[in-house]
Structures are given as C-alpha cells and as structure tokens.
Design brief:
Layout lengths: L2 H12 L4 H7 L4 H6 L2 E5 L3 E5 L4 E8 L2 H11 L8 H5 L2 E4 L3 E12 L2 E14 L16 E2 L2 E2 L2 E5 L5 H14 L9 E5 L7 E2 L2 E2 L7 E5 L3 H11 L4 E4 L5 H11 L4 E7 L3 H5 L2 H8 L5 E6 L6 E6 L2
Parallel strand pairs: 9-15, 9-16, 10-13, 10-14, 14-15
Antiparallel strand pairs: 1-2, 1-6, 2-3, 4-5, 5-6, 7-8, 11-12, 16-17
Helix pairs in contact: 7-8
C-alpha cells in the first residue's frame, strides 16, 4: 500500500465532514494522513485523528451539534431512514466503505435498542485495502492446496480485519498455491466488506458472498443452508453463541476463518471465550499480529 493511496483514503473520509472541519483536517501532514486510522468528532471537543501511536487533536475545530448532524446526513446521503437498522446497532456505513460509529442517548426497548438520539460523538474509521497483506502467511495456512481453519489474533486496532479481508480475497480469487473457493463472509459490523446499498465497497474477491449486519449465530446456519460455502469468514468472535456457530460450521466440513481480540495465544487462553475456541478443536493455525503501524509483523503458530 503506497503512502499516496493511504493519504487519498483519508482525504475521501474528510469529505464526510462539514466544510470548516474538513478544511482543518486537510491541513495535516501527508504522512499523518497516511497513518490516520480514525477521525473522531466529540461535541464540545476538537476533532481528533487516531494514529498508531497517539491521538492528534486539531486546533480550532471545536465540534458543535450541527457538525455531527451534517456528518451523519452526508454519510446516509440525507436518508437516515435507510440506515435506521444499523443505527440501532450504533453505526452507519457510508459510500466508500467508511464505517461511522455513533454515540449518544440510546433508546432501549426491552432487549432491543430502537435508535440513538442527541448524538454526542462520531468515529469515522478509515479502511484501507492492503492487497497481498495475507500473502506472506498464506503458504502456512494451506494443506495440499486447501485452506486450514485459522484464527487471526491481535489487540484492538492491530490489523486483524485488514489481514482477514485480504485472506478472503486471495482464497476467493485463487492463487498459484491454491485453487479458488467459495467464501461466505459474515460481516456483522460492516467492516470487512463495508456493504453500502447492497454493494461491497472493499475488495473481498469474486467468489465471496457477503451477509451483512447479521449476528454470527444466525448468519452461519443461513449461509450453510443457502450458499454451500467452502469457507466461512467471521470478524471478532467474542460471545459464547459465536463459538457455538463456529462449531456448527466445522461439523459441516467448512473451513473457518475468524478474528479474535488477543495479544497472544496465552492471552487468548486466559479468556473464557478464547479457551472455548481453542478447546473446540476446530482451528489448526493461528496468525498472531504484533507491533503497530509499519512495524506490524505476523507469525503463524500451529494449533494441536
């Protein structure tokens, strides 16, 4: 991924900001544009950029309520009702694949949240497609040309989603090491494919079917029944019901690719859901991502 491309993605995200905030955000150095992972707007506070090693506040950019409303209007193309379902879950996905987290006053009704009013902050994530990010580890994730069920581990913001997205793309299109396969992608939070009005905004391969905005426990059985996948990819396995869905797919002979928050296998074993994932015996490989920014490195560990 070139600095030019990375900076251009930042500039595309800035187009969602109201004019005065956009002008300020565009003045940062090119290297900071390329590194920025998020643009955060908090009412009464200056705009901030999330960089790998710090949060950078932009001077003279105090956010007011109208700024938040304008940004949401731009993200939803002035049709918030279209995004009402994902807003209930605290985010919207804008054209270009920008996922915007939304905070404010929730409107709970029983076990369901009906929406968010009095929006108080937005987090605009800047996804970047890193083509071939997974290629260095791919040989170790194959056996006789077939993908092995694999966990991808890193702390939050460590690059799990980026690596999984590229792994899905490589398996879907096929490589010199493995023939193409049908991949079903469970994109519960809209970060892997970033579907906008039915169309993935980020490249996930020509043989990939995306089920967007659906909980994993519901999505996996649906995909097994309807799409006959050879592999299923899931982002951020975090709940006991997610583990149950993984086991269901494995019992049907499907390869599983999943990410999980953990700094190491030892860290993963220290968590209830992590232990359950490892003890179910589904996964054969673990990709551990270490470091930040350009210093990130991946290593593959074999699982018993």
């Amino acid at each position: 991924m070139t600095e030019e491309y990375a900076a251009a993605r930042y500039e595309d995200a800035c187009a969602l900001l109201p004019g005065r905030l956009r002008a300020a955000a565009m003045t940062v150095e090119r290297s900071q544009k390329a590194e920025a992972e998020e643009i955060r707007l908090r009412i009464g506070r200056p705009v901030s950029l999330t960089l790998p090693a710090m949060e950078l506040f932009l001077p003279q950019t105090r956010v007011i309520r109208g700024d938040l409303e304008q940004a949401l209007d731009r993200a939803t193309e002035y049709s918030r009702y279209v995004a009402a379902e994902t807003l209930r879950h605290g985010y919207v996905t804008a054209e270009g694949g920008f996922r915007i987290g939304v905070c404010g006053t929730a409107l709970p009704c029983g076990e369901r949240n009906e929406g968010i009013r009095d929006v108080s902050s937005l987090a605009i994530r800047i996804p970047r497609v890193r083509e071939d990010a997974a290629r260095p580890v791919l040989p170790e994730l194959l056996e006789e040309g077939r993908p092995l069920s694999t966990l991808v581990l890193s702390p939050p913001g460590g690059g799990k989603t980026t690596l999984l997205r590229d792994l899905v793309r490589l398996l879907s299109q096929g490589t010199e090491l493995a023939p193409p396969c049908r991949v079903a992608l469970v994109d519960e939070r809209g970060e892997l494919a970033a579907v906008h009005r039915g169309r993935p905004q980020l490249e996930v391969g020509c043989r990939t079917d995306v089920l967007d905005g659906c909980p994993k426990a519901l999505a996996v059985p649906m995909l097994l029944r309807a799409m006959s996948p050879q592999a299923i990819a899931l982002d951020e396995v975090a709940m006991p019901e997610d583990v149950a869905a993984v086991c269901t797919a494995a019992n049907c002979g499907v390869t599983l690719l999943a990410t999980v928050h953990a700094a190491s296998l030892q860290d993963l074993r220290g968590r209830q859901v992590g232990r359950a994932l490892l003890e179910c015996g589904v996964f054969r490989r673990a990709v551990v991502i270490e470091g930040l920014g350009a210093a990130r490195q991946c290593r593959v560990e074999r699982l018993p």
